[in-house]
């Protein structure tokens, strides 16, 4: 695995990234899109169940309320999962949390797929809540796990497995939801049964892979276990350099246990890291991509496309998203996080503006709807070029080990609340502003780009301590504090050499 001093990606690292994401972020992406295709069948099931129970058709207002709850409770579950993740991460570790989380996925699959047979729409609603809980835990534990097991020069590429599998999950939900596959009245239950398959695959593979070596050494004080984990992930026997780096970080944190959310909010030394995380994660949702996903069919329908071809146009958006995420993963270590984020947000602002123009003048020419469709694809590709995955990577990179669980809890809370706000408010914004509704997202994209250009340092190929040092000036922390880690590293190395010399002299 070592050639000319360069570390190649090992099979162990790839398996951990892929199967970790398969049972986590893939399910999150799948559940973003899977309810779109069977929506009419589920609503009909709600109506039939209501008739069986009460002997009358469900009223329009109650039907809308039940469907809204079914869709939006996914975000509520995600928020609950985010809040509970830090407890699980501390007790079970990164890998252990991912494994236990699969229990929620299997339970949700059973509830969602058996709800019609049991004539209980409550089972569907509870199932959506539980799979949201699963997604909230997954989007906290997985980026943390991937960031801690990856060598720093490929940390971004490995971290992008999270975004790639989200996109692949969205695309899979679109494919399986086609009328020719499972998008039929007699088959829609199987769309939810599929949730159990990625979870079971992860349960089979992940136990054979190591826990995060940083977690083992810093939080469990298991140096032997950390050494074995590093050896498997890096594919080499001599991991003394990696161990020493983590060991010094552990020594620097001996007097500091894992901090709580309130302690993190009060800590001046990480204030701008926290603000940057909040801004980036808010822009991740408020940039408008979710509005595109939720209302793509309506946008294309309003643009004049025929009803029977809408599923295939929607399918192409998932394919473009997946391809863009893969390309981003291949170039992130060459171009860096900051340029990809700023480019993505700026490009989204441009294409949202063009989409507004084309939607406003769509009746002027027969080919204008195709320009609207092209802008939708461009918005999706722009999002996946950076904003779609890098916010999760940055949350893991901007904080040291003690702060990381609390930081992910805050980032996840912002993520899910923003997600809920977009789904709730965009229909009213669209109704008020009509074709100009997407200009709201242009504002968020531009403001986010300006902030990132001014504040965010580049984090590629840097240690966690180097990244924290990059914020020392803006946090008004003396630079000397940032060098303590490097000084400790040199002092410890010299002490080790002296100890070896003393032992050798005694032996002689």
Automatic annotation (TrEMBL):
Residue ranges of the TM segments: 12-30, 65-92, 99-118, 124-146, 158-178, 190-209, 274-297, 309-332, 339-361, 367-394, 406-429, 435-456
GO cellular component: plasma membrane
Domain Major facilitator superfamily (MFS) profile: from-to ranges: 17-460
Keyword Transmembrane helix: yes
GO biological process, one term: D-glucose import
Keyword Transport: yes
UniProtKB keywords: Membrane, Transmembrane, Transmembrane helix, Transport
Record Pfam families: Sugar_tr
Subcellular location: Membrane
Topology term for the membrane: Multi-pass membrane protein
Molecular function per GO: D-glucose transmembrane transporter activity
CDD domains: MFS_GLUT_Class2 (cd17432)
PANTHER family, sorted: SOLUTE CARRIER FAMILY 2, SOLUTE CARRIER FAMILY 2, FACILITATED GLUCOSE TRANSPORTER MEMBER 9
Family assignment from sequence similarity: Belongs to the major facilitator superfamily. Sugar transporter (TC 2.A.1.1) family.
Protein name in UniProt: Solute carrier family 2 member 9
Organism of derivation: Cynoglossus semilaevis (Tongue sole)
